[in-house]
Amino acid sequence: MSTVVKRVNGDLLIDLKEYNTFKQIKEGLVQKLRGIDDYLLGTMVKINLGDKHLSSKQVREIEDILLDHGLHLKELMSNGPPLISEDMMIEDMPDYEETALLCRNLRSGQKMFTEGNIVILGDVNPGAEVVAGGNILIMGSLRGMAHAGAFGDDRTIVAAYRLNPTQLRIANHITRPPDGEVIVVATPEVARIRAGKVIIEKLKI
For the domain that residue 191 is a member of, what is the CATH number? Predict the structure, then answer.
């Protein structure tokens, strides 16, 4: 058995506390599983993450890696806040029961408001506004103003196929591009709050 995997009360204990990102955690797990003996197939596994915590999506990925090696996840030991993935997934956004769907473009002077989420199958043009109590997902270009978490929920996100707003707000956090700066966006992006600031990252759909 690999020296980096311990046997405790019939279960395998794998220590992954040293890794800081989810990508590193996955790569470290695969590396430590390479030395597992065949007679351990079907064994239950406990993984120690230390001060990190995984989302349900990330847990499923860990389970899949273990299954690929003939093992089963029994327990994830962690005592910290959720681990932030390198790229945000659509399913990682907070849940709201109400979701409004708008299948058109918003022109200058038009405004859309919903208490829950809003999904727009079109563009939000300059001078248009989208305000939601929940998340905002735009399957087109955001070139107007968007305000997610209008009632104060700073877990909400704003995502767009082309994210280039005149102003972007999440709860009480506001950001806008510098005057005169032209931003060329080539991939879907998501804006969310991290460490009290609005940050923009790539979005996996």
Answer: 2.160.20.70
